[in-house]
Amino acid sequence: MELLNGIFTLFRGDRSTAKKPVDTSVTPRTYGRFVSLGANPLNVATVYSCIDLLSDSVANLPMHYKKLKGGIFEDDLSDRMHYLLNVQPCNDMNAFDFWKTLVIHLHVKGNAYVLPIWDYVNPGLLELRLLDPTQVNHDKTSGAYTVSNAGSVLNGVYSEEEIIHVKNFSLDGKIGISTLEYARITLDIASSGDGETLKRFENGGNSKGIVSNDTSVRGFGEYQDTELEKTAIDIDAKFKGGANTVSLPGQVQYHQLSMSSSDMQFLESRKFTVRDICRFFRVHPSFVFDDTSNNYKSAENASTAFLSTTLNPLLRKIEVEFLRKLVSADLAHKRKFEFNREALYAMDLAGKVSYQSQTIATGLYTVNEWRAKENKPPVEGGDRVLVSANLKGINEIITEAQSE
């Protein structure tokens, strides 16, 4: 009977140790590991700088809640939504911290979750609660979200419509994947480089080597093994003590083993790693203070590319998700969430004036409309729409055309 059981077990195999095939087409490069500096990727300067730049860029922009009136979307300042989006989304967080933390969650964890708290007595939105992504589990099959926060009244299971879910890069459109997961190997290299730099500064750049005797004498001659060991300890202590030149007794020879930074292309590798990390975050190296742009034109092109290909898709992603979850389907075409992209020129005064002049010259804005945005009183004649033909009134051009 035992023989039959043994044969049956042999053919059945051990299911507990059987390896399941892995679909590498949908598996990020997670086989790397953060090898130093506390295993925290934010300890890598380039990663910290990229995430800080992206989160600050979003948090700096006001979010407008607009309603359709007379064919034009206008700010609805009377709605509580405006206060929540721009002043205080919840009791323990202001609007800047809210948007900044949301973007950090997006890139570090891959997903950002916001729980709207509704007032069912007086219909309206009370709060926007930013949840910790590590305490939210999303079931892709049912679409349910399970919030598990010890001691919180927010614990429970929520439906798809009840949670605002902003995703990072996603392979299925349901769960986002952190940028750090795909950049794991590059971050390992960067962490290793930082760790190597720390070691070199800790020991003053001391070299490693072997102490031996003159090879013309077989064996160690007058130096026995113990004496060579003592000599090696003495030399090591002198190097650690800051000595640059050390004398060797008798026929002792010193053979260096460690490579210099230039030999192992250490500095060049660190420069390349900075740019490689920037590629994952779609941030130009000049934004993380890597000196790659030496002229004004290249810096201007980098800024334009960042706004159009990196920042704008991120803003659009947030706007659409908030509209989808906070506004019913029958009102979606009459409401709009929109970041004020004009605020990007807040500190670029030359660019701001140039943009204002062009919008006035093309008839998009009047002088008084821009003065109102700058908190300035209106001026007489400032409500006239102007065009670039010597900045004449548009009615004057029509009158001249009719007279001809």
TrEMBL record:
InterPro entries: Phage/GTA_portal (IPR006944), Portal_HK97 (IPR006427). It holds the Pfam family Phage_portal. It comes from the Bacteria. NCBIfam families: portal_HK97. This is Phage portal protein, HK97 family.
